[in-house]
Amino acid sequence: MAEQRKVIHVTEYDYQSPAECSQQICILQPQESNQMTVGLLRKGQKLLRHALKIRPNPSTVQTSQDAFGNVVHHFEMNYPHDHLEVVSELEVEVIPMLHTGSLDELESPVWHGIVDALRYKAGQEVSTDFQFRFESKHVPILDSLRDYGRLDFWPNRAVVPAAYALMQRIFKEFTYKSGSTTIQTTVEEVMQKRQGVCQDFAHVMLGVLRSLGLSARYVSGYMLTEPPPGQPKLLGADASHAWVSLWCGPELGWVDFDPTNNQLPDSRYVTVALGRDYADVPPIRGVVHGGGQHSLKVGVTVF
Fold first, then answer.
1. Cβ atoms < 10 Å from Cβ of 251
2. What's the domain range around 297?
3. What are 147-188's pLDDT values in tens digits?
4. Which of 124, 166, 192, 267 is the most interior residue, by most CB within 10 Å?
5. Do residues 280 and 267 lie in contact, with contact meaning Cβ atoms separated by under 8 Å?
6. DSSP three-state, residue 31
């Protein structure tokens, strides 16, 4: 049964002195394309409403679509301002995946067959899924990552059980530690220290899958978290989340895996954007002229 989710994402900047002007890009609105339709092992999602509130009022606002189908808002503040607040409010209907049984009951193709199908062949049309095979800004292709993946991806193993086992191993062998990394932390450093946050876990899993020759993409969004028993839900206590989507052949399509929480994303998850890694889909980024030092506050609430 479909469930409705509401998300309020608040980002606030306070500048030490007035910024003369700024230009910002937001990726906060979920797609409305068929990339979010329900699958055997992938939840579906329908956007019901989205509102973007910017204070103070921007000089200009433009909306476009990037190469991955994500909705991108561009806005400018062409006057002095010492505070910026961006509030994204959205409502979606989340549809559970179609398969409700055990993964052992599901037939999935062997992983090296998918690798062979993704290889370029002269005279053959290149699939749009092909682009997620290659390394990207934050996800390198390395022999060490390939070797790490071969512990789960042995010859003739089905792709879904292999990816599920990899997800479980990352969850068990890596420690989630808030603030332990930054966006500049490399996959090699995360592999060495065996700790990080959700975007690090996603980058590691992407690096392993791509190093094996598979096509996998970065997914950004939110996850509903429940408060401790007897405690009220705190507004702004949730956070943005990241996980992985793996191409598992034409019959299964894209299948999502969350190595941070060791599960296939279900109706508690809200998908916002898809890309090669975090650099393609940050919630907000921009350029500010002046302003000096600034403080940043981010609050996310998922209902």
1. 10
2. 3-94+285-302
3. 999 999 999 999 999 999 999 999 999 999 999 999 999 999
4. 166
5. no
6. coil
Q: Are residues 128 and 31 in the same domain?
A: no
For 182, the enclosing helix (H) or strand (E) is none
DSSP-assigned letters across all residues of 33-93: SGGGS-BTTB-EEEEEEEEEEEESPPSEEEEEE-TTS-EEEEEEE-S-EEEEEEEEEEEEE
Q: Is 0.85 topped by the overall pTM?
A: yes
Tell me what the mean pLDDT of segment 48-71 comes to.
Answer: 96
> Is beta strand 294-302 parallel, antiparallel or unpaired with respect to 269-275?
unpaired
Q: What is the DSSP letter of 156?
A: T
Buried b (16+ CB within 10 A) or exposed e, 181-216: beeebebeebbeeeebbbbbbbbbbbbbbbbbbbbb
d(CA 39, CA 7): 23
- Could you tell me the sign of the dihedral formed by the alpha carbons of 58, 64, 65, 71, in that order? positive
Q: Give yes or no: residues 47 and 158 share one domain.
A: no
Residue 108's identity, in one-letter code, is S
Question: Domain of 68: which CATH number?
Answer: 2.60.40.2250
